[in-house]
Amino acid sequence: MWSFKRQVNYYETDRMGVVHHSNYLRYLEEARYVWMEDVMIPYPEIEKQGIIVPCTSAEETFLNFLRYGDEFSVHMELSKFTGVRMHFRYKVYNETTGDLCLEAETVHYTTTREDYKPTSVKRSHPELFEKLQSLVSNEMDD
Amino acid sequence: MWSFKRQVNYYETDRMGVVHHSNYLRYLEEARYVWMEDVMIPYPEIEKQGIIVPCTSAEETFLNFLRYGDEFSVHMELSKFTGVRMHFRYKVYNETTGDLCLEAETVHYTTTREDYKPTSVKRSHPELFEKLQSLVSNEMDD
Amino acid sequence: MWSFKRQVNYYETDRMGVVHHSNYLRYLEEARYVWMEDVMIPYPEIEKQGIIVPCTSAEETFLNFLRYGDEFSVHMELSKFTGVRMHFRYKVYNETTGDLCLEAETVHYTTTREDYKPTSVKRSHPELFEKLQSLVSNEMDD
Amino acid sequence: MWSFKRQVNYYETDRMGVVHHSNYLRYLEEARYVWMEDVMIPYPEIEKQGIIVPCTSAEETFLNFLRYGDEFSVHMELSKFTGVRMHFRYKVYNETTGDLCLEAETVHYTTTREDYKPTSVKRSHPELFEKLQSLVSNEMDD
Fold it and tell me: How many domains in chain C?
């Protein structure tokens, strides 16, 4: 499964001594954008075509903490694509200890800056539509 | 229902022109801590007693955007308390437009810095336990 | 001197147990925008007129820490206005202990989204220009 | 000169469409910690020895914007070390355009969590002291 690694930054920790829980949505976003680059649909290019992809829902289960000095990986897949909505699933591992730290799912939709309402890219951007459809996987079920 | 208001900060927006979705968990945290102050169990005091209250899960549905210049309110209730786990429910409204922007639920547990595992406060802090139990409400169901 | 107060948020602390130093530029920004509202030139209105006000330099001296639970105040003045550049000076106090926590100065310039180069508002927005000039003060020298 | 590269994250931009100026202190911190790792004095190890290194002052001149999709580099040197205070100088370049985006200097001091006052490491940690002294350079003057 596709994954992305980096280290925890000091400024991402809080006085509890661990990564503040609000930062995980930022880690997932970083993973998505590196993934999009890797699958040849870089997000900055998508925005240049007038499309934006807001987040419409998020579910996170926090299982173990990440601390400063830890390296973590975000394992990720596009689990569903309806032409409008993109469902992503994630597992974040502490690469230093092997612990599973987060299980998450986020849903996003394609829209334009003029509209901000869910808009299918099927007709407007058929190549992007087909590319995304071909990338759907469900390995995380197992 | 208890609520808390403030304005969107400029640094909370992103290049999409709206509040970045990761900030809502920060807004909910702010609301919880103001609520705890209001119900006379200020969180800094709880930490001085050696208790910390990490977040163990979060569910968010993003319904409308907040933008710079908007005032928002977080409506909130402690919907369940098991002695270890605290369930909070939230609705975030744009006070400028009246729109419902976020529906959310977060779960937290009581623990200590030595342990970081869920630990009941029933025996160790009976007053805190009873206070929290007395505060449980379920108005948001309606 | 004009000032603005609020509490430290939990998510603004780091594993050192204190407010992460990068957050002070955010506190100063909050103060500026509340100030602009108070002096009747609200920043969202300025942006609607096509003007943006980026930061071009910042100097900060960190003197004491702020911690979770502390209330702080930002004392601030517009110390110089050239028609293009706005110089602000700040002192941040811990309202809980009375300690001076930060002395700072930031410089900003007026520009447009089309340009992003320093642009005088003297001709294009004479009312804004005169208003800002009338607000310059140098109380912090004393 | 030592340098460190990474991409701008989406969540680091603001509604002006550029990296929010408060994030640069975070970029500089990231650079320092990668540098410390590279020169074999990893900061997590230093904290394990009871030492913390708060920031006592910062000067930043913002020269050009960074935008989402840009790669940037932080060029950095330890320009002075007194046994207590560490002075760092930085230049941040947009690797996509070649533009110089930021010139900065930060000063930090060594202390302990018990004390939080400037404390020399000369006697307590002579190896760390000598290592840091040997790393001082002044290439950025040229």
Answer: 1
Asked if D75 contacts D104 with a C-beta cutoff of 8 angstroms, the reply is no
Which residues of chain C from 27 to 86 reach within 8 Å of chain D, CB to CB? Answer: 29, 52, 54-62, 65
DSSP string, A43-106: HHHHHHTTEE--EEEEEEEE-S---TT-EEEEEEEEEEE-SSEEEEEEEEEETTT--EEEEEEE
> Is the reported ipTM for this assembly greater than 0.90?
yes
Instruction: Look up residue A133 and give its two tokens.
Output: 């459809």
Reference B104, options B67, B71, B62; nearest CA is B62
Q: Choose among B80, B69, B65: nearest CA to B135.
A: B80
Tell me the pTM: 0.96
- Cross-chain Cβ contact D58/C55 below 8 Å: no
* CA dist list (Å): B55 to A58, A99, B114: 15, 17, 17
pLDDT tens column, D93-105: 999 999 999 999 9
Alpha-carbon Rg for chain B, nearest whole angstrom, is 16
Whichever domain contains A75, its CATH number is: 3.10.129.10
Q: D120: domain range? A: 3-141
Tokens standing for residue C91: 């002192």
